[in-house]
Each structure stands twice: as C-alpha cells, then as structure tokens.
Design brief:
This protein is of the alpha+beta class. The chain contains ten helices and 35 strands. The protein folds into five domains: about 190 residues, Rossmann fold; about 90 residues, Immunoglobulin-like; about 100 residues, Immunoglobulin-like, CATH 2.60.40.10; about 100 residues, Immunoglobulins (Immunoglobulin-like, Sandwich); about 50 residues.
Length: about 575
C-alpha cells in the first residue's frame, strides 16, 4: 500500500488531564449520594495508559488528591482508593485558588498541547462573608487568570451542578479557553457528562454501534465497550462472532469485565473478527473504543463557533501513523457526515475527496449552524472495516458581532465590534481590549465609538508569532440592566499574512492547517431552518436571561449585584482618570 507520512500538526502530543472537584457543604444537597465518586471512577477507568492526570478537591482551600502522574494500572488503583476521600464538608468555594493550584506548574512546561482541566462546582465564587471580596475574586478570574490559561494553551471544561452554580463564570471559562461547558440539574447525570468531557480531552478510536451490534475487523488489537445500565436492568451479556456468551461471571483470560452500579466496562484483547452483539438495553451513550493501526483521523475543530462562521471538516485514514493515499483503497470508502442539530433535525452529507490533498476528505458546514449544541458523527464504511468519530460543538449567538478585516499589504488587522442595538443601549457602552503577544506583557486598549462601531487596529504579529485579543464589554440592555456579553477570544496568527489558506479566528486550527474550498453536497430532505424573524422584546428578554445566566431569584440578585458593582467600579475608575487628566 502506497503511503506517506501524515503532515505535521496532525499527530497529537501527550495528553494531560487535571480535575478539580468541589467539596463545599452545598454538595450535601446537590450530591447527597456522593455520585461524584463513581463519575470520577469512570473517568479514571477510561484513561489510557501513557496519558498524564491529576486530581484536586477544593472548598476554602484546594487539596491534592493525587498529583499529576503518568497513567498506569498501579496508578489507577492508587487513585481509586484516594478518591474515596471526596466529601461535602467545606465552608467556602474558592474557585480562584483552585484554578491557580491546578495550573501553577504548567507555565514551566514548554509543550502547550493537549492540556485539559475539568472543573466541577455547584456554587458561586465564595471566598469570604464579604460579598465584595468574592466579587473581586470573580473579577480576577476573568481579568487575570483566564488570559494566563489562554497563553498556556489550557482548555477548561466546566460542569455547573445545580441552579445555584455560577453558570456565567463556567460558560466564560470554557468559551475563552476553547473548552466545553455543561449545565446539569442532577448528580445522576455526572457519569455521562464526565464521559463527554473525557471524549473532549482524550478522543479515542471508536466503532459505530447499530442495533447493539458492532463489527470487529482483523486490524483491531483490542476493544473496550462501555455499556450503561438503568437501575434494575438485567445483567449485561456480550455474544462473540462464534456465539459464545460473555458475562461478568463468564470471562476468558483475554477479557476484563468491570461491573459497576450503572455501567459495565468490558475490555477484550485480541478479539475475534466478525460481528459482536451486546445483550442489553440500547443506550445512545454506549461506545466502543478500539486499539488499532488503521485509524480514522479528523482535523481539530473548535468546541464553539460563532453563528456566522463556517466549520470545515476534514478526515483522513492512517495505517501505523502513515497517511493512506492509495486510490484503489480510497475508492472503496463510503464516508458520511451526520449533524444532529439542536432543533431535533438531522442533516447528512457525503465527505468528498479533496482534489488538492490526496487522501483527505472534506466538507464545509455553513447554513445549518444555528444557535445551540450540535453533535457531529463521521462514519467510514470500508467494506471490510468500519470506523466512527463523534464530536460536539456549540454555536454561540452573541449580541455583539466581531468582524475581522485584513490588510495584507500593510500587515494590519482591524477588529470591528458591532452591537445589536435592538437589544442593547449603547449610550454608555464600555469596551476594553486585552492584547497579548507572548512573551510580552499584556496591554489594554480602550475602544472608542465611531458611528456606532468600536474599532481596534493592530499590527500583524512577527513571523511564527500570534496575537491573542480578549474583549471586556460592559453595557446595558434596553431595559437598563447592566450585562457583560461573552465574546470569543480572537487569535491572529502570523500565517494570516503569509498564506491565503490560513484561518484567523479559530484557536483550534494549527498554523499549518488549511481552510478548504467549499464542496458541493447533498442535503437530506427536511424542514428548512427556523425563521429568523422574532419578536424583539421576547428576544431581548431571552437573551437577557442567558446573559445573566440565572434561574433562581436569589441567584439573580447576587449576579445582578455583582454586575452593578463591576459597572460602578469601572465608571468610578474612568471618572478618576478623567479628573487626573484635567489636573495635569
């Protein structure tokens, strides 16, 4: 088989996962059965050998459960014993100290790829009985810690458990760092959420399951099947291609069966090729992870995209890490992309060969990117083998759009912020840009309004460098409520000025990852997207609820108070600066 080495940037470096678990007293109500422990136990059992992981618990102070170490069987046994210490006796919820403790050594490590931090909490930043001290701590997380996390390449994945969690901060941490945010109302969901975040941090090779059946080919050296069970369900069984029955009490030497209260995790080494069957209730979260030399791989895509952005999907197959380009092999492949949309619709496209890049198949998603969370599923049928990749993305709809204008001749970039005036009263809108070009210090620029727009002009970064731009916006809604809309960070790579095919605003795309031309596709018949015409007052109300990110009355008052405090603080500082200018 004719093969070439996969291009640089397509092979991931070492994975490292760190986990922060809230053990404050409120967990007695939100997780009375301490379901954090079995959820983390699932994560530990899924971690492949060779990755690196560490665990902390936190309340008024962070405490190491086990420091970051290379995953191995002895390590897993040690951690499984240590996580039994997780409790619900803490007095405060100091998220600032927890983030600092779990990331402080990462700035000393040069490799910034594949750093993931999972943060689970059921509360707000609470460092003192003095509300303002907690508000200041929350502000330091936003203004100081988040930029450091971005510079260190750390993705923050957050789980907000309960309506009292600071969902606004959790969302901002995830959005700003390219991570993922989940909001759940029951600890019963923790296992499945941890599975989703595990797949974000450590994407493994997987197989499709159809009707509880899956096909094992001769290139698969080992597989692990995760099977969720509801309470009271019969014991799970697995039927091999030669009709042997495997169960918890009937396992050959090459089978390891982990039986937990809500799931089974079964690992089979040197499995027999052919069709295998799961005898259990079907569950959409069941998955089959494989160890194989024949891999389906995918370009890095962001966890979140703007509503007006396009999403480029590109897949390729490798054999022993070599890109497969032999045409008589590639012609046998049937590769399909499926998008499960937030509104319940499903769209399908064939992935077409990329004429410019032999061995690659691509598609650009555009019109179906409506606001909300979507699941992407890529399936390959190679006649004698099958492979699958699943990814989740969230489409963000912000009341402030950012448009990028590039002047390649003069090597300049202009970022243009355009607020939706149907929703926002921009009379006293304050916009600050925080610009970082490592290893230089961050600089702050106050943007001034020009004909209803806020413009930031920047010189392009030097060759091989990149700029990071964060925006902090304080504005009022039409009803007079102060809000701080989230805006995705902007990454400006030097390659923007050197190659027409480079993307600008996608922090996930490597500097050498091309943006492919749009290909023609066939869309599965179905209803068109929902009409965009909405009642303005209702839209303003809905967006305000999202911006405040609250559900309970007490929480609204707390967050509202913090926003007013931050608004007044910024206004006072600005007035002081103006007064000093007059006195000079």
């Amino acid at each position: 088989m004719t093969e070439t080495r996969a291009s640089d940037g397509q092979k991931n470096g070492a994975q490292e996962i760190r986990v922060l678990i809230d053990v404050s007293g409120s967990m007695k109500q939100n997780d009375p059965k301490n379901l954090r422990i079995p959820a983390i136990k699932l994560l530990i059992n899924l971690l492949p050998d060779g990755t690196k992981a560490g665990f902390w618990m936190f309340a008024e102070h962070p405490k190491v459960i086990i420091s970051p170490q290379i995953v191995s069987k002895p390590w897993k046994q040690q951690v499984l014993n240590e996580i039994k210490k997780i409790h619900s006796r803490g007095q405060l919820t100091d998220i600032e100290k927890a983030l600092q403790a779990a990331t402080q050594d990462w700035n000393k490590i040069k490799n910034i790829q594949n750093r993931h931090l999972i943060l689970l909490t059921d509360g707000m930043v609470d460092v003192s009985r003095d509300f303002m001290e907690s508000a200041d701590s929350r502000e330091r997380i936003i203004d100081s810690i988040i930029p450091k996390l971005q510079q260190q390449g750390i993705k923050i994945h957050t789980i907000a458990l309960s309506e009292n969690a600071d969902k606004g901060l959790m969302k901002r941490l995830a959005l700003a760092t390219g991570g993922w945010s989940e909001i759940i109302d029951s600890a019963e969901q923790l296992q499945r959420v941890f599975l989703k975040l595990f797949n974000k941090a450590v994407p493994l090779d997987t197989l499709p399951i159809s009707g509880n059946k899956f096909m094992i080919d001769s290139r698969i050296k080992e597989f692990s099947v995760l099977i969720f069970r509801r309470s009271g369900a019969a014991d799970t069984r697995i039927i091999t291609p030669d009709e042997q029955e495997l169960s918890q009490i009937n396992t050959p030497d090459n089978v390891n069966w982990l039986h937990e209260k809500n799931y089974d995790l079964v690992t089979v080494q040197k499995p027999e090729p052919g069709q295998w069957r799961i005898v259990a209730e079907t569950d959409p979260d069941n998955q089959i992870m494989i160890v194989t030399d024949l891999k389906l791989q995918m370009n890095d895509i962001p966890n979140s995209v703007g509503k007006d952005e396009a999403l480029d999907i590109e897949v390729f197959l490798t054999d022993r890490d070599q890109l497969i380009t032999r045409q008589n092999f590639l012609k046998m492949l049937d590769i399909k992309l499926q998008q499960k949309m937030v509104n319940g619709q499903t769209r399908k496209w064939p992935l077409m060969p990329n004429q410019k890049k032999p061995g690659f198949f691509s598609h650009r998603i555009t019109e179906t990117l409506i606001s909300g969370k979507h699941e992407l599923i890529i399936k390959v049928d190679g006649k004698t083998f099958k492979r699958e990749i699943k990814r989740s993305i969230e489409v963000i709809d912000s009341p402030i759009r950012v448009i990028t204008k590039v002047d390649k001749k003069n090597r300049k970039v202009t970022l243009q912020l355009i607020p939706d005036k149907n929703l926002l009263d921009t009379s006293f809108m304050s916009v600050q840009a925080f610009i970082t070009e490592p290893p230089k210090q961050e600089r702050t620029v106050d943007l001034q309004e020009k004909q209803g727009q806020w413009l930031l002009e920047l010189n392009g970064p030097k060759h091989g460098k990149r700029l990071l731009v964060n925006f902090s916006v304080t504005v009022k809604t039409r009803k007079g409520n102060p809000v701080m809309p989230d805006i995705k960070p902007i990454f400006i790579n030097s390659s923007l000025f050197e190659d027409n095919s480079k993307k600008l605003n996608d922090p996930q795309v490597k500097p050498d990852t091309p943006v492919e031309d749009k290909v023609k596709t066939e869309i599965e018949s179905g209803d068109d997207e929902d009409s965009e015409s909405k009642d303005v007052d209702q839209e303003a109300t809905d967006w305000l609820m999202i911006s405040l990110m609250v559900a309970g009355g007490n929480f609204i008052l707390i967050v509202f108070g913090f926003l007013i405090y931050r608004w007044q603080k910024k206004t006072t500082l600005k007035q002081q600066e103006q007064l000093l200018e007059r006195l000079e």
